């Protein structure tokens, strides 16, 4: 799933709304809007039933039934209604200058995570970002492109795959790291990526921690001794919480290394745990199923296993998870509202957020 890591580049505080002219996205399948469609990998979501609730009911490569958090945030900020993938060869100049996603489903901060499934590691995504800057310079000119990058909102969602692929399920990294050492290893990687983005002009950053990894349906399925008694995996959730505590303490130290930066921690563990443990308490939402996905049995289906032969549930609004790994559009919108309330106001003292309820899209009408 993810670390929610937002970077906003230095903006003129006196400039009127919209504050962010573009949105730039890095990470894993939680924010891959279709880049894996153009890679030689089986980790794709460009087939039914993915996208069944996306505008036009088309599978775009998003690993969900509809929109992702970056789409909702881009709409909230009046940038665009959906964020396209950078590898799409049909991108218009407007698509580029208003922002794209560089994310790749299955990716992580650790390069070995991506190598397991043939997709782009985070380091490769930054190289694509450099190419993006060159393309934008060709459209706007170097000076205006620099202004655009400095004012753009960057979202990064990564980290969960690193633990899933390398520690819990295929424990390759456990041969050289214990869980504490691997947490520190990933956060050193994160600090290195922050430095690279800072050198490319980024200044304001909001970083969210890991989700409750042990509550992903695929993890519950793999670790449940009794299939009839599906419970979250406590030790994996505990690892995520410790990682988050370390991250919250680390960010002020990182900020002190980069003059002019503002780096804020955002907790995404809480809203997901709230949806899992207290689904009936959520305003205007009633998640009936929180331990399995909507696609097929919801126990193991994801990517190529979630297909036309594994029909979805009757009402995806009742499901927290779309497949055995990824949240549903309903869950993503709840997370977006949480981030709007808890995170966006921290980006700038003068930032005035617009309620998501005012957005004009299909999902708002349903929630």
Automatic annotation (TrEMBL):
UniProt xrefs under SUPFAM superfamilies: SGNH hydrolase
A GO molecular-function annotation: hydrolase activity, acting on ester bonds
Pfam families cross-referenced by the UniProt entry: Lipase_GDSL
Domain of life: Eukaryota
Database matches in InterPro entries: GDSL (IPR001087), GDSL_lipolytic_enzyme (IPR050592), SGNH_hydro_sf (IPR036514), SGNH_plant_lipase-like (IPR035669)
Gene3D superfamilies: SGNH hydrolase (3.40.50.1110)
Listed PANTHER family: GDSL ESTERASE/LIPASE EXL3, GDSL-LIKE LIPASE_ACYLHYDROLASE
Family membership: Belongs to the 'GDSL' lipolytic enzyme family.
Protein name per the record: GDSL esterase/lipase
């Amino acid at each position: 799933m993810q670390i929610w890591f937002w970077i906003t580049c230095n903006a003129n505080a006196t400039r009127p709304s919209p504050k962010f002219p573009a949105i730039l996205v890095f990470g894993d399948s939680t924010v891959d809007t279709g880049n894996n469609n153009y890679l030689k990998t089986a980790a794709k979501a460009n087939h039914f039933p993915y996208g069944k609730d996306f505008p036009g009911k088309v599978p775009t490569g998003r690993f969900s039934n509809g929109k992702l958090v970056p789409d909702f945030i881009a709409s909230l900020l009046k940038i665009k209604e959906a964020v396209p993938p950078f590898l799409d060869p049909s991108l218009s100049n407007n698509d580029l200058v208003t922002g794209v996603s560089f994310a790749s489903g299955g990716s992580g901060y650790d390069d070995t995570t991506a190598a397991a499934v043939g997709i782009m590691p985070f380091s490769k995504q930054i190289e694509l970002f450099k190419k993006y800057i060159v393309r934008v310079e060709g459209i706007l000119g170097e000076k205006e492109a620099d202004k655009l990058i400095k004012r753009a909102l960057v979202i990064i969602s990564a980290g969960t795959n690193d633990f899933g692929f390398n520690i819990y399920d295929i424990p390759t990294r456990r041969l050289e790291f214990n869980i504490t050492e691997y947490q520190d290893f990933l956060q050193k990687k994160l600090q290195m990526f922050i430095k690279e983005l800072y050198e490319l002009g980024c200044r304001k950053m909001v970083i969210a921690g890991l989700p409750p990894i042990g509550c992903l349906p695929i993890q519950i399925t793999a670790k449940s001794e009794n299939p009839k008694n599906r419970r979250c995996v406590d030790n994996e959730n505990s690892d995520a919480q410790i990682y988050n505590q370390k991250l919250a303490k680390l960010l002020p130290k990182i900020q002190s290394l980069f003059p002019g930066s503002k780096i804020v921690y955002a907790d995404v563990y809480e809203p997901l745990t709230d949806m899992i443990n207290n689904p009936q308490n959520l305003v205007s939402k009633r998640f009936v199923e929180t331990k399995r996905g909507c696609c097929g049995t919801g126990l193991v289906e994801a990517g190529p296993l979630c297909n036309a032969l594994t029909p979805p549930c009757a009402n995806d609004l009742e499901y927290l998870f779309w497949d055995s790994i990824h949240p549903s559009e309903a869950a993503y919108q709840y997370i977006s509202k949480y981030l709007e309330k808890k995170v966006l106001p921290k980006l700038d003292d003068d930032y005035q957020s617009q309620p998501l309820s005012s957005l004009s899209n299909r999902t708002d009408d349903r929630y």
